[in-house]
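Render M23 family metallopeptidase in 3D.
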Amino acid sequence: MLGIGLAAVIVVTGVIVLPRLRPPGPRPAFQLPVTCEETWVLGTYPGHDDFDIDFFPTSGQAWGRPVLASFGGTVTEAGLNGTLGSRTPDNPKGPHGTGAGYWVKIDHGGRWETVYLHLLEPPTVEPGDRVTTGQRIGSVGSTGKSGAPHLHYEQLRAGAKVESHFDGAPSGITSDNREYSVERTSRNCG
């Protein structure tokens, strides 16, 4: 009887009890999501969204370059988001698709996540897989809504995008109010 009365009080008063979310933990020691010792251009442009980073190599072709986990964790999503389009190394000016194309999302614990978009082929990992820092998760491509081969990358804290840090330092990509870029050399040496 007491249980029924308590339920009635909750319904009548409109009180909803939700679990309290823990605050995010400390930032993981993220590394650039590209091969050790390579230098890449990290850029953004108006309309790209604050903190979104596009990676382009400073030398050589982007197509097919390895995309690496920037820190260890558990893959929560991997596969196709939107439509592929038909931009490939053999048809680089083909029509673009929609959404992220082939992509991966990794949970690093402490409410930290990373996402990797526009991969060339289906990811080499799937949901539930544990990955380590520097593990290959895919290849640079131009699937989804992408104008050229590159890696689109984001770091999220408690579900919100934040400025990415690599090797303990801020990336320098913070807003999309203008087109700008910085160069960084990967220390993701596994």
